[in-house]
Amino acid sequence: xxxxxxxxxxxxxxxxxxxxxxxxxxxxxxxxxxxxxxxxxxxxxxxxxxxxxxxxxxxxxxxxxxxxxxxxxxxxxxxxxxxxxxxxxxxxxxxxxxxxxxxxxxxxxxxxxxxxxxxxxxxxxxxxxxxxxxxxxxxxxxxxxxxxxxxxxxxxxxxxxxxxxxxxxxxxxxxxxxxxxxxxxxxxxxxxxxxxxxxxxxxxxxxxxxxxxxxxxxxxxxxxxxxxxxxxxxxxxxxxxxxxxxxxxxxxxxxxxxxxxxxxxxxxxxxxxxxxxxxxxxxxxxxxxxxxxxxxxxxxxxxxxxxxxxxxxxxxxxxxxxxxxxxxxxxxxxxxxxxxxxxxxxxxxxxxxxxxxxxxxxxxxxxxxxxxxxxxxxxxxxxxxxxxxxxxxxxxxxxxx
Length: 401
Description:
- This protein is an all-alpha fold and about 400 residues long.
- The protein has 20 helices and no strands.
- It holds the Pfam family PPR.
- Keywords: Repeat.
- This is Pentatricopeptide repeat-containing protein.
- It comes from Heracleum sosnowskyi.
- Belongs to the PPR family. P subfamily.
């Protein structure tokens, strides 16, 4: 690079510029004078001071999110903490990236609540965790006047909810020794769940060994947590061994023990085997839950098997298990597509009755097919039924003739 520059420099030095010959004239040369630039005329107007740019006020979050934040404040109050409602509001606010409104709601409870109320502070840390705001949860823990295993478990759970799995392990190893308390069964269960969710099943199984060596007996939550991870990672040999350990310790399995196994079998195209496991579960007096039925309904719906899909949906209703939005949303388009309008109307009405809000277009398809089949009255009845729900109001209409 430097040699190239030197060559160019030498080239420019050796090059002589040939000046054009001067033009001769008989006239005497004019005297040359250097003209100085004319001074600028003074202006009567004084220079204008720089104008300050007007900053617009920060934009307010949309009204629907502010309302959610107010509902979160109400649901997270110490007097009537509603954990499921609070989690729902936090999930929706976090999905919309409205973290400032989550913080506003929690700080409101910090101000009106008792700083020594460990239970409340633990729940507020969980809210921060579910909102993906672990640093805020850590601040809450640091500000607590006394650190205990209960408050530690709240922080540990917040790291789990925020998916800070490395932090979960770090806290477990460092904080108990730092603040002088012993971990308990809940602490170990949170650690095991963290390892399972991060895909570290060897470490998760190691928690079970560590618990027993430290004199902490596992419970059904421990075993069910490990079963979820083992079936998810298709570690069938280890899962069967864990079932044997449960039996040796006289732990009767629950529906949460069976659901991971059913899920694995259905997802791996062994739905007949899954039915056998379901029947075995019911014969042992273990009642199926909504997830059990959802797994079978989804399994048959994915195969396009309308009759079995309807049969399992009907079993759900017979066992007095309430359907949820995802079940209705899965079954209704299938029966509508297959032309079973009577069953489609039944599902549509149940979705409104149970307030399982599905996409407007799904119900509109039912209305359109009813009109096409000359079932105008049934279409009008369905529209009338949805008028009580603001989500559908003025959206569901009879198709134009």
